[in-house]
Amino acid sequence: MTIYFFNTMDRVREEFTPVKEGQVGMYTCGPTVYNYAHIGNFRAYIFEDLLRRTLEYHGYRVTQVMNLTDVDDKTIRDSRAAGLPLAEFTAKYKQAFFEDLKTLRIEPAEHYPAATAHIPEMIALIQTLMDRGFAYQADDDSIYFSIAKCPGYGKLARIDLDNQQAGVRINADEYAKDAVADFALWKAWDEKDGDVWWDSPWGRGRPGWHIECSAMSMKYLGKTFDIHTGGIDNMFPHHEDEIAQSESANGCRYVNYWLHCAHLMVDGDKMSKSAGNFHTLRDLSARGFHGNELRWVLLGTHYRKKLNFTFEAVEQARISLQRFRELFRRLQQEPKPGAATPAVTTAVAALRQQFAAALADDLNVSEAFSALFGLLRESNRILDEGSCSDADAATIMDQFHDFNRVLDVLDFEPGGTEVPAEIMAMAEKRQQARKTRDFATADAMRDQLKTRGWVIEDSPNGWRVKPL
Ligand code: AMP
Ligand code: ZN
């Protein structure tokens, strides 16, 4: 099946053809390990997880590289504030990050190179840029990339180079879009860096953020590789600068497909540490939300659309997951002995086809979820009819496992207390009644639930049903 991706470089949907048949090299900008990642960051990592699992589902062997930025302006600033050596400070957040990946069921990448373990590679790449005349040492002893020497500069972000001020230099790792200027490849040591420095042909210092990704992607994936991903905020300056460095040094195309995800939003603003409007996974876990419920929410909206985070959406995911658990229980208990029904086999095959085609179409996850729900409905229908055979149930369960190879939101082991579908339906009816201020119905539903041994627990984050 042909796969299509929206390539940010060309701003169009393009057929995917890898450099090496059957294999995909993919680079993902990873976390800056100076704090716990927030769920906005995890939206990006979950989109990348969907991408790699989709490629695997379609038969590709994926080599994914995700860097760990463990030296930059922020890690140095905060490790000094904490009074800890840089490596000790970042180790804690690296470990937390890997724990969070597990909680969210994100498949591990093949390589997680840390910036501090690749300084010689970065120095070698900077040396090549110096030798080829793309970089220079300035009065402050730092090494800068000269964008005037790079005619293609700005091609990814489509920035207007006419606004460029000749000779203006930027030393910060992150800078705004209007700051089109020469950027630092190697930053000469200053007292803000404390004891963080490495020796180089240009004196003591440390690498800039952008050179890290150019050097490490080249080491693990080669000079030209298939896919580079990140959140849309990484496009400029970070990815633009990566392209400039890599293509100038290597004289060949850097990346064939650029994929960027839109932001996770809160009340109309991007979720970010600096805005203070963020939730870490740990905060949410402490409030009783499960990894797969959050994964469902972060996965469920197409990656190029902004996603507004709400607790109602997490509650909705919880209810949906409950429906699947209830169905799996029925599929274990209700089928009668018998052979496969051709109509069921055909319907399951059609849903599999719908699912595979949806993902191949630039990761159309809503359509993939609709195949998942299609299978839920079809299964409930034949169970209600009493026409589901053992063999049908087995076909259906196999298909749910197959969908879950990509989505990985379902739980097949009966865990926790299962809420029967009718109880869930009453709870939802009560919720609906409360919304429309029909308190009589709402109270009646609550009482009925009580007589059946269930209670609705309300909290500022939503509601859930639990045994009385
Ligand atoms: P950082 O640690 O800031 O370098 O970000 C790590 C990754 O998370 C990058 O790919 C960012 O683009 C991405 N990211 C940051 N904030 C958000 C957000 N609110 N929504 C989606 N992705 C984000
Ligand atoms: Zn990067």
Protein architecture, described:
Among the domains are: 17-133 and 212-266, 3-Layer(aba) Sandwich (Rossmann fold), CATH 3.40.50; 324-414, Four Helix Bundle (Hemerythrin (Met), subunit A); 421-467, no CATH class. The chain is 46% helix and 15% strand. Strands 5, 6, 7, 8 and 9 form a five-stranded mixed sheet that branches. Strands 4-3-10-11 form a four-stranded parallel sheet, sandwiched between helices. The chain has 468 residues and is α/β, with parallel strands linked by helices. The site of zinc ion (ZN) has 3 residues, from loops.
Share in helix: 40-55%
Q: Could you say which small molecules are bound to this protein?
A: adenosine monophosphate, zinc ion
Per DSSP, what share of the residues sits in E-state strands of 2 or more residues? 15-25%
The CATH topology name of the domain at 17-133 and 212-266 reads: Rossmann fold
Shape: elongated
Largest sheet: 5 strands, mixed
Q: Secondary-structure element sequence?
A: EEEHEHHHEEEEEHEHEEEHHEHHHHHHEE
Average pLDDT taken over every residue: 93
The CATH architecture of the domain at 17-133 and 212-266 comes to 3-Layer(aba) Sandwich
Number of strands: 16
Just give the CATH class of the domain at 17-133 and 212-266: Alpha Beta
* Count of individual helical segments: 14
What is Rg? 26 Å
Kindly name the structural category.
alpha/beta
CATH superfamily descriptor of the domain at 17-133 and 212-266:
HUPs
Poorly predicted regions are none
Terminal Cα span? 51 Å
